[in-house]
TrEMBL record:
<comment type="function">
    <text>Catalyzes the reversible adenylation of nicotinate mononucleotide (NaMN) to nicotinic acid adenine dinucleotide (NaAD).</text>
</comment>
<keyword id="KW-0520">NAD</keyword>
<feature type="domain" description="Cytidyltransferase-like">
    <location>
        <begin position="12"/>
        <end position="191"/>
    </location>
</feature>
<keyword id="KW-0808">Transferase</keyword>
<keyword id="KW-0067">ATP-binding</keyword>
<comment type="pathway">
    <text>Cofactor biosynthesis; NAD(+) biosynthesis; deamido-NAD(+) from nicotinate D-ribonucleotide: step 1/1.</text>
</comment>
<keyword id="KW-0662">Pyridine nucleotide biosynthesis</keyword>
<dbReference type="InterPro" id="IPR005248">
    <property type="entry name" value="NadD/NMNAT"/>
</dbReference>
<dbReference type="GO" id="GO:0004515">
    <property type="term" value="F:nicotinate-nucleotide adenylyltransferase activity"/>
</dbReference>
<dbReference type="InterPro" id="IPR004821">
    <property type="entry name" value="Cyt_trans-like"/>
</dbReference>
<comment type="similarity">
    <text>Belongs to the NadD family.</text>
</comment>
<dbReference type="InterPro" id="IPR014729">
    <property type="entry name" value="Rossmann-like_a/b/a_fold"/>
</dbReference>
<protein>
    <recommendedName>
        <fullName>Probable nicotinate-nucleotide adenylyltransferase</fullName>
        <ecNumber>2.7.7.18</ecNumber>
    </recommendedName>
</protein>
<keyword id="KW-0548">Nucleotidyltransferase</keyword>
<keyword id="KW-0547">Nucleotide-binding</keyword>
<dbReference type="Pfam" id="PF01467">
    <property type="entry name" value="CTP_transf_like"/>
</dbReference>
Length: 201
């Protein structure tokens, strides 16, 4: 787990990053800038329980690729969830909170995940552990209005113009941040690679 000092504001950006791409880099850059973060932990997970793992690259490979992609020294690429055998986001956030008193954490997610967030294990618990910043992604701009999470926690949403105070708020608190969007996705990249491999064989 990366080193932090009391009083820091830290974004938690988790995913399988299979593979990492410029869309992930853009989310990290927007979060750092709009939330005024001291650090962003780019957390490479062992695997997503809601996804098929047949085409999952090794953890070491995904960490190495993520380190090449990470935009600047404030982004700390880590895979501590594997070391501590943490399989669900709710577990991870509870673990991070217990180990790091005095740190202002924010959970960072792309808007494409917001649509299915209510299917995550203990999703309400996640929303009540740390504030959440949802970063816009292509095709998901309206998810902040229509998703079950958005409706359930509508009372806890703050305006994106106030995003810089989000790390200092008590959960539940969340905002939706609009900005530049990348059309890249990990699944599309994997599909293209598989198609090219088939065509070459």
């Amino acid at each position: 787990m990366p080193h932090v000092e009391p009083g820091m504001s830290v974004g938690l950006f988790g995913g399988s990053f299979n593979p990492p791409h410029q869309g992930h880099e853009l989310v990290a850059e927007i979060a750092l800038r709009r939330l005024g973060l001291d650090q962003l932990w780019w957390m490479v997970t062992p695997g997503n329980p809601l996804k098929n793992h047949d085409d999952l690259a090794s953890l070491d490979e995904r960490v190495a690729l993520s380190r090449r992609m990470a935009p600047g020294p404030r982004v700390k690429v880590t895979a501590f969830e594997a070391a501590y055998k943490l399989h669900y986001t709710a577990q991870t956030l509870a673990f991070v909170k217990a180990r790091n008193p005095g740190i202002n954490f924010v959970w960072i997610m792309g808007a494409d995940n917001l649509r299915h967030f209510h299917k995550w294990q203990n999703w309400r618990g996640i929303a009540r552990t740390f504030p959440i910043a949802v970063i816009d992604r292509p095709g998901s701009t309206l998810a902040y209005l229509s998703s079950k999470m958005a409706k359930t926690f509508s009372h806890a949403r703050i305006d994106e113009d106030d995003a810089a105070i989000l790390p200092f708020l008590r959960a539940p608190a969340w905002t939706f941040i609009h900005g530049p969007r990348s059309s890249l996705s990990s699944s599309a990249i994997r599909n293209e690679r598989a198609t090219n491999k088939t065509a070459a064989s």
